[in-house]
Design brief:
The complex is a heterodimer.
Chain A lengths: L14 E3 L10 H30 L6 H24 L1 H6 E3 L11 H8 L5 H11 L5 H5 L4 H24 L9 H6 L19 H19 L13 H10 L8
Helix pairs in contact in A: 1-2
Chain B lengths: L1 E9 L4 H12 L4 E12 L11 H4 L9 E8 L11 E5 L10 E9 L2 H4 L9 E16 L2 E10 L21 E2 L6 E9 L5 H18 L20
Antiparallel strand pairs in B: 1-5, 1-9, 2-3, 2-6, 3-4, 4-5, 6-7, 7-8, 7-9
Classes of the chains: A mainly alpha, B alpha+beta.
């Protein structure tokens, strides 16, 4: 249920700012701020809801690309929300809500309670506590990253990681037959399990074909074992078995 | 001990393929082994009353002279020692069983005093021949599959005393079957051949394995008398 925050003109729920000496209606600017925040929160909440539904109901799970784009949208909404919040920090920190006498407190008691309450719900507070604990290291765990530090880190990490990825993509690194480590150590030492040489360039396909033919040739030669002529008729199974029992060579055996 | 057996034969050109098939079916790589088998002919029946004599212990009905085998594992590489000699007494496969071959078998490591009966001018046994097997062995639950090639050692090996002859060198041996076929043996061993329920269960397992391989390696029942160990007069 969208909370209707209104000025006292609307006779519903006025907000009072401590920066003002006495009860005063909100300026249209302040009113717009609150409405913006409401909209952003609504967006954020519905995107979170839709990701949640995606994850719960889709079988199989959505593709990584889809998840990444959802995360991107969430991140974007959060950033926007943060920006608006930061812009109007002073006003928002000072503002607090109280009901007018004509607020229907008896019928809307729950809503009223939620609006006037300043502390978070215990569950939400636990959640905030849990995730405000930084876990970057034993030392750092005691003093969480400040917002500024976090931003510095991301200012550096974001561009530099995309630089690395861009380089990999422009070099066709993912199309290569060998890893960087293998290239550096020299590809002639790589155990590929193949007897033919993998071409450095793709235009050696013909040559590869020839080499495979040669390999087959080698295979045939190898199977020619001394004393064995596969063209001869096989010795009957019963004869072989009889030999293993009595040691008597079949008649005509030489 | 009792053995249920099926055999077949594959040409040399199919050897690698069959090994791959078996590796796939059994989900394991083959174990390579070499064995030396000496074949002896009994020249005097062991006194059945003296039951501690190993060869006849598990096969009291063997009233006829039979061929017996001494075998040992050979090292796969150049170095290494051969395993101890083991005596293997295979009886004639039972008649009237059509789906598989079923025969009593005794197999045990032979002790030195017993081994003396196989030497030189013993009145008990006479050396007949020997062969070497190179085997790839697979195990699929209770079924043991052996894909082997049989080799004959060079002429004159063991002419004097085969038990003490130096280890045969495989490169000097020649294949028994010059066309290079491999012998495929699938077997299930059970302790008690008299236990009908156990025999039935083992037979079913072997036949199920045969059905699995059907079309790829067609195991069959050879002529029962091809595995006749009895000494002909």
């Amino acid at each position: 249920m969208p909370v209707h925050l209104a000025t006292s003109d609307n006779n519903q729920l006025p907000l009072m700012s401590d920066t003002h000496e006495s009860t005063m209606s909100l300026s249209s600017d302040e009113y717009r701020t609150i409405d913006q925040i409401r909209q952003k929160l609504f967006q954020l909440s519905s995107s979170i809801q839709s990701v949640k539904v995606d994850l719960e109901r889709n079988e199989p799970l959505p593709k990584p690309e889809a998840l990444a784009s959802s995360a991107h949208i969430l991140n974007y909404s959060l950033t926007q929300f943060n920006q608006i919040f930061a812009q109007h920090r002073q006003f928002l920190n000072a503002a607090h809500a109280y009901p007018l006498p004509n607020f229907p407190g008896t019928t809307q008691e729950v809503l009223l309670g939620q609006l006037v309450k300043k502390k978070l719900e215990p569950r939400a507070q636990d959640w905030v506590d849990e995730y405000s604990q930084a876990t970057f290291g034993e030392e750092d765990a005691k003093k969480p990253f400040r917002h500024e530090q976090m931003r510095q880190l991301w200012d550096w990490a974001g561009p530099s990681s995309s630089d690395v990825v861009r380089e990999l993509i422009t070099n066709d690194a993912f199309e290569d037959d060998y890893t960087f480590a293998e290239r550096e150590a020299g590809i002639e030492n790589v155990v590929t399990g193949l007897k033919r040489t993998l071409g450095d360039d793709s235009d050696e396909d013909d040559e590869d074909g020839d080499k495979m033919d040669e390999d087959v040739g080698v295979e045939v030669e190898k199977s020619a074992e001394p004393g064995i002529d596969t063209k001869m008729p096989p010795m009957p199974l019963d004869r072989i078995l009889a030999f293993t029992m009595t040691g008597a060579l079949p008649p005509g055996f030489k | 001990m009792h053995e249920l057996l099926l055999f077949t034969q594959i040409p040399a050109s199919r050897h690698d393929q069959v090994l791959h098939v078996l590796a796939g079916v059994t989900a394991a790589q083959p174990i390579e082994c070499r064995e030396q088998n000496l074949i002896y002919m009994q020249t005097k029946l062991a006194d059945v009353a003296v039951s501690k004599k190993a060869p006849n212990k598990q096969a009291p009905p063997a009233q006829r002279l039979s061929y017996r085998k001494l075998f040992r594992d050979l090292p796969n590489g150049v170095d290494g020692h051969a395993g101890p000699w083991k005596l293997r007494a295979e009886e004639l496969p039972e008649a009237g069983i059509t789906h598989v071959l079923s025969r009593p078998v005794a197999e045990n490591v032979i002790d030195p005093t017993e081994l003396e009966k196989f030497r030189g001018a013993s009145i008990w046994y006479k050396y007949v021949n020997q062969y070497i097997t190179t085997t790839h062995r697979f195990v699929n639950s209770n079924v043991i599959v052996r894909v082997s090639r049989l080799f004959l050692p060079p002429e004159g090996t063991g002419a004097l005393e085969p038990l003490d002859a130096p280890l045969p060198n495989l490169s000097e041996c020649r294949p028994l079957d010059a066309s290079g076929t491999y012998l495929v043996e699938a077997s299930v061993r059970i302790e008690d051949g008299g236990n009908a329920k156990l025999v039935e269960q083992a037979t079913q397992e072997l036949l199920a394995f045969k059905a699995t391989l059907a079309g790829s390696v067609d195991l069959r029942v050879p002529d029962r008398l091809a595995l006749d160990p009895r000494v002909k007069a």
